[in-house]
Specification:
Helix content: 40-55%
Radius of gyration: 12 Å
Number of strands: 4
Number of helices: 3
Strand order of the largest sheet: 2-1-3-4
Shape: globular
CATH topology: Glutaredoxin
CATH class: Alpha Beta
Length: 87
């Protein structure tokens, strides 16, 4: 089984970031042992390069380093992408 590396890029006190985190954690929980997933959260406030690149797009979700979604995370699309990434 392949491990999918999720990276959620956002910032504190961002309601869209909070919503995205809820969707990601819910989908990962639903998949459980069926998918091997790691999740890292990064803040644009802690990294100037991330801030320059993504400040207008947060939250940003990366799967294995590639942008999966910006602003809103669709749980159906995320679930399908994780199943494919961990197959």
């Amino acid at each position: 089984m392949t491990i999918a590396r999720l990276t959620l890029i956002g910032k504190p006190e961002c309601h869209l970031c909070d919503d995205a985190r809820e969707v990601v954690t819910s989908v990962v929980s639903e998949l459980g042992a069926a998918a091997s997933v790691t999740l890292e959260e990064l803040s644009i406030l802690d990294d100037a390069a991330l801030n320059d690149k993504y400040w207008e797009e947060i939250p940003v979700l990366l799967i294995n380093g590639a942008v999966h979604n910006i602003w809103r995370i669709d749980p159906v699309r995320l679930r399908a992408a994780l199943v494919e990434a961990t197959a």
